[in-house]
Amino acid sequence: MTVSQLATNWIIAPTILPAITAAILILMRQRDIEVQRLLSVVSTLILLGVALFLYDRVSDGVPQAYRLGAWPAPFGIVLVIDRLSATMLVLTAALALAVLLYAIAGWDRRGRHFHALFHFQLLGLNGAFLTGDLFNLFVFFEVMLIASYGLMLHGGGAKRLRAGFQYVAINLIASSLFLVAVGLIYGVTGTLNFADLAVKAPAVAENDQALLQTGAILLLLVFAIKAAFVPLHWWLPATYAAASAPVAALFAIMTKVGAYAIIRIFGTVFGDGTEAEHLGAVVAPWVVPAALVTLAVGTAGLLGTRRLLNFAAFSIVASMGTLLVAIGQFSIDGLTAALYYLIHSTIAGAALFLIVDLITARRTVKLDALVPGNPISQAAILGTLFFLVAIAVVGLPPLSGFIGKLMVLDATYGVPRAWLIWATILVTSLMMTIAFARAGSTIFWKTEGQTTGPGWETAAITPMVVVGLLVGASLMLAVFAGPAVKALQATAEQALDTQAYVRAVLGSRENTEPARPITEPAAEAEVTPVPPQEAAGD
Amino acid sequence: MELIVASAIGLMTAAGVYLILQQRTFPIVVGLTLLSYAINIFLFTSGRLVINEPPIITGANSYADPLPQALVLTAIVISFGMTALIVVLAIRGFLETATDRADLPEDDFPDETETGS
To answer: Cα A473 vs. chain centroid, distance in angstroms?
Structure first.
């Protein structure tokens, strides 16, 4: 076994490690919570280490594939890592560590199995970022969702149960749509492997094109539900506002899974071929308008909501709008901006949920209602943190949101209807500034009566440090924007380079003529003149 | 056979969608179940409908595609687990809030009125 093979085997580690950890954590449920916390944190630290190692491995620019059971590529299951996957892995692990440190200050005690569910969630997330075929994307989505159902209900209560029912129902519908899309695409192309799909999709017969495009649009719908596109966004504020704060902060990466899947499927897999006929072009006209409406709706929600938790949730919707405007360009500049904004908005969104939780915990009377109330303890430090997080989320200098939005504006300069995109982004930024200024001044300045919340001697310090670290991460992302953008540009170029991806997975096979696997229904369709859905042998 | 299978899928999907659009949790759960049945059969047909053929290549020009069958099996397991979960959620929600409505009522937030001043 050579060194490179050994490194290839590491690709599966980000899925195995959380799976084993979660299993051990279930066995340890009777043990002291301190032991569980220790194992949970150590495992997440190792995961971060593995993610960084893998990132380093793929930074030479060549995607690498891990074939499960060494089955050759289009037949067996493959995990593929490239810069995009590795970036998402590192982001997930880093966010998970921050959220976990926040949760062990107390939230994890408020229900059972928090740590086990947390690691199952990481398993689903990492798997979704690594998988190299459509059906396993579905499976890892489900793993991620099952864990998220448990996490969302963490802490219990009638409100969480009601919101949880809606969340589960909408995701079951999304899963059904996903399976329809999988069925359509398999029925037409005879493969679900990303690389194989990329080779076969352009070669699909003329009369099957409509089916393939229907499948592609259905996939976009599924990812749109995950990414909270308008009009499929309505589940998000209810769910995130009902979930406990650390869970909502971890969910900040869940919407990004939808964004990642859009980049992977419509950028890498279906992005190949001529400008007019590739499948990315079929969905592209829908993405940007929907993204602009998402941004507007998110901002309207920020202005209109009367609760801090909903406020934080709507900021996620708005940030997804900005992100998808950039993704919708399907250009290298657009994708670079999108990836930068993705990292930024994950950090900022999580930080916002955590700071809102710190504030809510201290407002013992009004809780998260956005109305004047009692002054809170540690107002100076929490106020400063809220101010900094607000700057990051809205996109004002000097934090990373500013650079992110600037890059999005720059990437959309000169595209058709750029004025509309610019106007929407700039006006919504102004509106968001107003919304945050109003929320901040209501909570921290319009106060009367006695100070509520724990004093310095009883207050937990770690949660504040975690929020501070997240703000620091945003600042670092801004300070080191040069190297970061350079790396992300390489990532974007690689994500749109279908041929390199195909080479990594299928090896030299893509040169051998269509290389159809023997289980190829299309060959059968040539024999039978009837349309494929009706092709049968009765 | 295609007509029967296609009609069955269409009918179950239509019934499922109708039930999902109801206000109460039980019809929604039944609707989701019907929808998952429809999807399972749909997935099954994506490998083409064939009768009395081996699921492997034997040199004959007709065979049953084994992959959709594997996919359906996975999909059945997942949708079964999900249905169990959502049933529990619906029952717990009913027991804790004494209503089986699926929407989130405005007055779900008890301190909304007192802070309205």
So the answer is: 18
The DSSP 8-state label assigned to residue A192 in this structure reads: -
CA B44-B45-B49 angle, to 5 degrees, is: 115
The predicted structure's pLDDT at residue A430 = 95
* Contact flag A183-B45 (C-beta cutoff 8 Å): yes
Closest-CA residue to A21 (of A81, A96, A76):
A96
* Angstrom distance (rounded) from CA B12 to CA A220: 24
ipTM of the predicted structure?
0.89
DSSP characters over A216-248: HHHHHHHHHHHHT-TTS-THHHHHHHHS-HHHH
Q: How far apart are CA A244 and CA A237, in angstroms?
A: 13
Query: What CA–CA distances, in Å, run from A103 to A126, A245, A383, A517?
Result: 20, 9, 21, 48
Closest Cα partner for A347 from A127, A99, A54?
A99
**B46 vs chain A: nearest CA distance in angstroms?**
5
- The alpha carbon dihedral of A129, A134, A140, A145 has a sign of positive
Distance CA A322, CA A310 (A): 19
Contact list, B103 vs chain A (CB under 8 Å):
166
What's the full length of chain B, in residues?
117
- Give the helix/strand (H/E) hosting A66: strand A64-67
Distance from CA of A238 to the nearest CA of B (A): 8
A532 touches chain B (CB under 8 A): yes
Sign, CA torsion A131/A134/A139/A141 = positive
End-to-end CA distance of chain B: 66
Instruction: Judge contact between B69 and B47, C-beta under 8 A.
Output: yes
Whether A331 contacts A418, CB under 8 Å: no
Gap between the Cα atoms of A530 and B60, Å rounded: 20
pTM of the model as a whole: 0.89
Q: Round to whole Å and give the CA distance between A475 and A344.
A: 10
Query: Do the chains contact at A183 and B75, CB–CB below 8 Å?
Result: no
Distances (CA, A) of A480 to A108, A472, B112: 34, 12, 44
Q: What's the distance, CA A87 to chain centroid?
A: 12
Q: For residues A274 and A311, what is the distance between their CA atoms, to the nearest angstrom?
A: 43
Long-range Cβ pairs for the range A169-173 (8 Å, 24+): A169/B20, A169/B28, A169/B32, A169/B86, A169/B102, A170/A225, A170/A235, A171/A145, A171/A225, A172/B32, A172/B35, A172/B36, A172/B79, A172/B82, A172/B86, A173/A225, A173/B20, A173/B32, A173/B35
Q: In this complex, is the C-beta atom of A142 within 8 Å of any C-beta atom belonging to chain B?
A: yes
DSSP state of A398: T
Measured between CB atoms, does B80 come within 8 Å of chain A?
no
3-class DSSP state for residue A31? coil
* A427, two tokens: 């006006």
Asked if pLDDT for residue A513 goes beyond 70, the answer is no
Cβ contact, residue pair A366, B108, below 8 Å: no
Tens-digit pLDDT profile for residues A114-166: 999 999 999 999 999 999 999 999 999 999 999 999 999 888 788 888 888 98
pLDDT at residue number B99: 83
* Cα–Cα dist A413/A137, whole Å: 34
* Residue from A277, A355, A281, A274 nearest A311 by CA: A355
Q: For A191, phi and psi rounded to 5 degrees?
A: -150, 155
Q: Do A161 and B81 touch (CB under 8 A)?
A: no
Which positions ≥6 away from A232 have C-beta within 8 Å? Answer: A221, A224, A225
